[in-house]
Design brief:
Length: 152
C-alpha cells in the first residue's frame, strides 16, 4: 500500500488539462491502487490523478457500495440541477455550495482498458463524479461554488 502526498491549491498541476490515458498495464494498475489507498487514508470519497501529481485522466470514487476506477471518463448526459455542499482534498478547510446536475451518464475505460458505460447515476455519486471529472479539466470548486466557509 502506498499513500501518496496530496497536491494542494494553488499548485499549477491542479489547473492543467490532464492527458488521456493511452497505455494500460502494471503502471496504470499501480497508480489506481495507490489512488485508492490515498483516498481512503484521507477519508475522501473521490480522488483525481492530478491531485497526486499525475496529469492523467483517471479518477477513483468510494461511496457506499460504489468503488469505481474510471479511466478517460466522459460525461455523456447531464440532467437537472441541484446545489450541494462540497469539499476537496486539495482545498483543506473549504466547503462550498456547488450546483451540479442531478443525473449523469458516463462513458469510461476500466483500469484494464475495457469500456465502461454508467447510465443515469443519481445523487451524491453523480456529484462526486462531476467533481472529479472537473479536476481532469483543471476546474476546482472555487470556480463554481458560492457561500464560502473557510479560507483558501
Ligand atoms: Zn477535489
Amino acid at each position: 500500500m502506498s499513500v501518496l502526498p496530496i497536491v494542494c491549491y494553488p499548485e499549477p498541476i491542479l489547473r492543467q488539462v490532464a492527458s488521456p490515458v493511452v497505455s494500460y498495464g502494471q503502471p496504470m494498475l499501480a497508480l489506481i491502487r495507490d489512488m485508492f489507498d490515498t483516498m481512503r487514508h484521507a477519508k475522501g470519497v473521490g480522488l483525481a490523478a492530478p491531485q497526486v501529481g499525475v496529469s492523467l485522466r483517471v479518477i477513483v470514487v468510494s461511496y457506499q457500495q460504489h468503488q469505481l476506477a474510471l479511466v478517460n471518463p466522459v460525461i455523456t448526459h447531464l440532467e437537472g440541477e441541484e446545489s450541494g455542499e462540497e469539499g476537496c482534498l486539495s482545498l483543506p478547510n473549504v466547503s462550498l455550495l456547488v450546483p451540479r446536475a442531478t443525473i449523469i451518464s458516463v462513458d469510461a475505460q476500466s483500469p484494464n482498458g475495457h469500456p465502461i458505460r454508467l447510465k443515469k447515476l443519481k445523487g451524491y455519486l453523480a456529484r462526486i463524479i462531476q467533481h472529479e471529472v472537473d479536476h481532469l479539466n483543471g476546474v476546482l470548486i472555487l470556480d463554481k461554488g458560492g457561500e464560502v466557509n473557510g479560507s483558501v
